[in-house]
Amino acid sequence: MIETPASAPAGSTEPAPRRAPVRLPVPAGVGRFLVLTAVFVCAACGLVYELVLVAMGSYLTGGSVTNTSVVLSVMVFAMGLGSLFAKRLRTRAAAGFGAVEALLALVGGCSAMVLYGYFAWFGGSRLLLIGFSLVIGVLIGAEMPLLMTLIQRIRKQDPGGAVADLFAADYVGALVGGLAFPFLLLPLLGQLSGALVVGAVNAAVGCAMVLGLFRQDLSRRARRVLLATNALITALLIAGTTVVGPFENATRRAVYDGEVRAAVTTGARRIVLVEGGPHTDRAGRRGIGLFLDGRLWVSSLDERRYHEALVHPAMAAGPRGRVLVLGDGDGLALREVLRYPDVHAVTLVEPDSGMVELARTDPLLEDLNHRSFDDPRVRVETDDVFDWLRAWPGSGRPPYDVVVADLPGPAFSADARPYSQEFFGLAGRSLAERGRLVVHAGPPELPRAYWTVEATVRSAGLGTTPYAVDGRRFGFRTGPGCVRLSESERPAHWGFVLAARGTGPPLALAPDGPRPRAVDRADLRRAAARAEDGRVTGLPASTLMHPRYQG
């Protein structure tokens, strides 16, 4: 229940603060409108802070579902604490609101930069993320009781009507902030600058409302302190936007341990291409590393082994004239598919146009993928892979002989849909009569996730052949700012599941196809045996309504 200045809550013996209506520099109706406008802006800023923490948690610590749940639950709990804390400030509501907004602007505006810097130079940042969620939640929770007190001082109104007005402005502001974050702030300013700018707006609006409407509630000294504090905070936040570029360059060097060739933030993810550093081979040749949301996705030192193991067994088990590749915006799996001269049509579906553009334009990445996107047999479609498969029956396209799902792995993806029973059912529907599906299932060192993928593919009516090829530490973070894993803790294998209608297809290489350079038949025999040695049985399938991969 929100307490009003006119009355105390039912059953409470605590007297409510009673203050005379404030003498405004504007008519009462205009004053109420200005207060509700401030509520609108502050609510938009508050939701942006929440989304910044959720996004930073996903980028820096992984486990998107877990981090989202932790951040939001901690913030809601903290908002309750903030509301209780605000009871003590109701007799000085104007000064209290001004102080709360100043502190919220400073903490919320700096949150992204502090989290990223801590991650880059010190490693894991989950406790710091929870700390920011707690502090920001307390400050957001303190806003509404203070605003309720202030708006009632302008003109007396029944509590229900005042609550309705405040929450209407609050919820509409939250809507605008929630939409502005992905569609305006991220594309135009990025995560760090966006948070800083929002903090500056928050400080300016909070200070302007207090000093413009309720200045008589503050002593002359308090007005000067409030104005100087907010001016300093606003100046610091705006100045922070001028150093975001050098700051990001420094943190990238700390995280990626090499020369950053390109860094692209798209609506889907953060893509960083690094040259040299740990990707330099023994002969001193500088290779490249491709990172998605801080995780190593491709290293030129070992990518060929991964992509050959992914593609060639599926291409060997039957016809291969028409191929569908899901994901693979880097074009490396596509490179292996195009080595077969009897492939006459390839459709590549990648949701992230930024990744495709980088693979098409960066000279080193182009050399690595052999300019596969320029091959006339290739058709690229930028779409969500799940939605594309769902719409496939109405597209008029014939079925595919091979479907290659080159996706991040269920344990490292914020989107579990491409590893659901429904997804594999849709993929199976797109297969020709003797068609095969191969999917990257993540490292078998995470056995429950790996074998849940296999169980989910089987639940879609496909026979499976699991296999695990030895590799490096694919999919895990590297760099000074990352959690260090001992050699025994690092995933040593890449796990795949090959599937077809009926029984699982044989694991082999095509005698009439190109010879892989990094994987041979002996490797595949060991890969099949290695997977079976670690089999986990009795796992339920993952579905859209019951995802099994992330806690």
From TrEMBL:
Annotated residues for binding of spermidine: 307, 330
Pathway info: Amine and polyamine biosynthesis; spermidine biosynthesis; spermidine from putrescine: step 1/1
Residue ranges of domain PABS in the record: 244-487
Catalytic reaction(s) noted: S-adenosyl 3-(methylsulfanyl)propylamine + putrescine = S-methyl-5'-thioadenosine + spermidine + H(+)
EC number: 2.5.1.16
Localization of this protein: Cell membrane
Presence of keyword Membrane: yes
Residue numbers annotated as active site: 406
Residues spanning the membrane: 33-56, 68-86, 98-121, 127-151, 163-186, 192-214, 226-247
Keywords annotated in UniProt: Cell membrane, Membrane, Polyamine biosynthesis, Spermidine biosynthesis, Transferase, Transmembrane, Transmembrane helix
Region named Disordered: 528-551
Any matching Pfam family: Spermine_synth
Top-rank taxon, per record: Bacteria
Major localization class: membrane
Primary enzyme class: transferase
Membrane topology summary: Multi-pass membrane protein
Binding locations of S-methyl-5'-thioadenosine: 269, 350, 384-385, 418
Coiled coil: none
Family under the similarity heading: Belongs to the spermidine/spermine synthase family.
Function of the molecule: Catalyzes the irreversible transfer of a propylamine group from the amino donor S-adenosylmethioninamine (decarboxy-AdoMet) to putrescine (1,4-diaminobutane) to yield spermidine.
Subunit structure: Homodimer or homotetramer.
Protein name (Swiss-Prot/TrEMBL): Polyamine aminopropyltransferase
Organism in which the protein naturally occurs: Streptomyces macrosporus
